[in-house]
Structures are given as C-alpha cells and as structure tokens.
Amino acid sequence: MSALSALPFMKPLHHVRSPVPQGRRHTLPASEFRSLSPEDAISVFEIEREAFISVSGECPLHLDEVRHFLTLCPELSLGWFEEGRLVAFIIGSLWDQERLTMDALTLHKPHGTTVHIHVLAVHRTFRQQGKGSILMWRYLQYLCCLPYVRRAVLMCEDFLVPFYQKSGFKATGPAEITVGPLNFIEMFYPVRGHAFMRRNSGC
Length: 203
Prior knowledge:
23% of the residues lie in helices and 27% in strands.
C-alpha cells in the first residue's frame, strides 16, 4: 500500500454506484488520488508536453527525467485519475539546500527536508475546473503528514505567482535558475509551520 492511500484524506473518492450488472466483473473508481509509478510516465509526459510546450516552449521534465523521479521517489508524486485516466499530476523530489540550483532540476536528495515541486499539470480537457488547486491542496496536506518534510519549494513564471499564492506559497524572490530565455520566481510553502495538521489528521 502506498503512503498516499494509507492517509485518511488521501483515500480515493468513490461515487455511489448501482450494483454491478451481471457479466460485468468490475468498475474503475470514478475519482482516485494515488502516487504515480514509472508505468505512468508516458501519460504524465504527454500531459506535461501539451501543457508547457505551447506556453513556454520548454517542459519542466523530459520523459527520462519523469521516469527517474517516479523510480527514486514515487511517494512524492500525486496523480488524479478519473475512470482510470490520468487527468492531473504533481511530481516532487527532496532537496537539501535553502535555494534551488540547477542540480535541483535533476537530483533527488534522500536526506533532504525540502520537497521541490517540479511540475503540476492538468490535462487540457479538464482545465478551468479548479483541479490544479484541488490537487495542490491534497498534495500539501499529504506533505504535512511526512515528519521529515519542513517546507515545499517551486519556481514558476510571473503570471503563475497568484495561482500559487492562493495555495499558501510565498515568493522568495527571483530564482537562480534560468532555462533559455525564461526567468522564474522561487516560492516556498512552510510545511513545518502547519505541524498542527499532523496532530489533527490521524497521521
């Protein structure tokens, strides 16, 4: 059982269904949140590529990097599935420095206390429905139940800063990392500052 499915607020959301018709062996859960695996990498990359290439021309993670992180730290990912289809996801890894550097784009530091959120993306047919905000909320709730995590960090373009501020992130300042012509703002979320959630969530 994954760490996600073991937590009360990470249990899949199931809609009430009518009895299974005769001859039909099973049905997929209407809505499910779970950690990702390397087998999900292609679906992840297809959503990511469509979401980012058209906007910035760059993907936060290439396919081999997606597989890399889903192999090393799948517990720091979260996928939203509807009828078995991936509709949104987050991929993170551990980092061990105060600020993000170029190494943070490709490395997972197992003894780190900072979760670097590499990417959040939503399938194009499910955008403008609030799924990104809901998924981020669930992800941050999950991080609050991991005793070794002290904060979450990410970097984004200027126009996305308000979106992440609504989720509780605060701007640190201009990121030290640039990708081609793109500049980013680094943001952080104080997971340790929400330690009371651990005491009241059954973690």
